[in-house]
Specification:
- With 347 residues, the protein is of the alpha/beta class.
- Helices cover 44% and strands 15% of the residues.
- It is built from 16 helices and 13 strands.
- It has a 5-stranded parallel beta sheet. It has a two-stranded parallel ribbon with strand order 2-11.
- Strand 7 (142-145) and strand 8 (148-151) form a beta hairpin.
- Helix 3 crosses helix 13 (259-275), helix 12 (234-249) packs across helix 13 and helix 13 (259-275) packs across helix 14.
Length: 347
């Protein structure tokens, strides 16, 4: 009987040794700053290579902004940081047209969104109107101001941090905004051992300041191209659709996941497969990312909230009840002749 472990052990590297080594260098560089959170670092790299955006949510002081900065510093690309506050205006993000007296014409002054990696710090402290300024740029990678459309640089990624909604001075992110983020991750408190190591490294020096870029923007673009070429067999695609469909009919959810969520789940699974050195995605890749990709898009019913049921728990329950494809049945690595795999970037 074929197992997923046997399939994984025979998968060739989709990116080649050099590009896979580039991904590992980025991972090690970020992990050198963020102590004891290898799974969080791996997820952030997965989202980057899947051309998505990452939402980091947790209480203050656990390293949310440091993770975003470490990822940005490890890549030699343009980086802008936006501190979201209640008085932040949409034009501060997208830019504004200013009248030039000498030219007698309007000149566009780009906002902070015009960078390859944008760090949105405490995004839910700004008003919903300001938050919505990110919608077009996150989905279409462009900005429209005064009827003119401006393309954003590639690669483009938004890494946003937010405090729990129950904290003072925060606004819940609109559903459309949350749906733009490919994945949400919670940092969590470090283990006592990791916190002790942190005191030894961060107490005497600033590892973030010493972090040097280990990859260029064009290296990341090559990795993204390799991820697009990862094959996803029909049973794996159907498995992803089954998981998302289950959220739309679950009795404890008043809002299920969107078709964009299905696309994000498959794209993230392809990136995870590439990071694992495989040319094809497995159902295990989908399962491992389902909570991070789906949970933040779901809205539990009032009864579920009274019962202290979280969206994460409901996704785990759906994973338990959704049949997993048989690894011995499909040809995971075989791509149909004459039908090359297309990775649509937009739903």
């Amino acid at each position: 009987m074929t197992t997923y472990e046997e399939l994984a052990s025979h998968g060739g590297s989709p990116a080649g040794g050099g590009l896979t080594a580039t991904a590992e260098r980025i991972h090690r560089a970020v992990e050198g700053v963020i102590e004891g959170k290898p799974e969080v670092v791996r997820l952030s790299l997965t989202v980057l290579l899947a051309e998505g955006h990452l939402l980091i949510e947790d209480v203050p002081g656990v390293g949310k902004t440091m993770l975003a900065k470490a990822l940005a510093r490890s890549i030699d690309c343009s980086v802008r940081r936006i501190q979201f506050t209640p008085d932040l205006l949409p034009s501060d993000i997208t830019g504004v047209s200013v009248f030039d007296q000498q030219r007698r014409d309007f000149e566009f002054k780009p906002g902070a969104i015009f960078a390859q990696l944008v760090i949105g710090d405490e995004i839910n402290r700004a008003s919903p109107k300001t938050q919505s300024a990110l919608l077009e740029s996150m989905e279409e990678r462009q900005v429209t101001v005064d009827g003119h459309t401006y393309e954003l640089p590639a690669p483009f990624m938004v890494v946003a941090t937010q405090n729990p909604v129950e904290m003072e001075g925060t606004y819940p992110l609109p559903e459309a905004q949350r749906d733009r983020f490919m994945a949400r991750v919670s940092m969590g408190y470090p283990s006592p051992e990791a916190e002790l190591r942190m005191l030894g490294t961060h107490g005497a020096a600033a590892p973030l300041e010493d972090l040097q870029p280990v990859a260029h923007a064009h290296d990341v673009l090559k990795l993204i191209e390799a991820v697009r070429a990862v094959h996803v067999a029909e049973p794996v695609r159907r498995y992803a659709v089954d998981l998302v469909t289950a959220t739309r009919h679950h009795p404890e959810l008043r809002l299920g996941a969107s078709p964009r969520a299905t696309l994000h789940l498959v794209r993230a699974a392809k990136a995870a497969a590439a990071l694992a050195g495989r040319e094809f995605a497995l159902p295990d890749d989908v399962r491992a990312l389902a909570v991070a990709v789906l949970a933040h898009r779901l809205l539990p019913t009032a009864q579920a909230q009274l019962g202290r049921r979280t969206a994460e728990q409901i996704v785990l329950e759906i994973l338990q009840h959704t049949p997993v494809p048989d690894p011995s049945a499909p040809h995971w690595r075989q791509q149909p002749l004459g039908h090359p795999q297309q990775d649509a970037r937009r739903p």
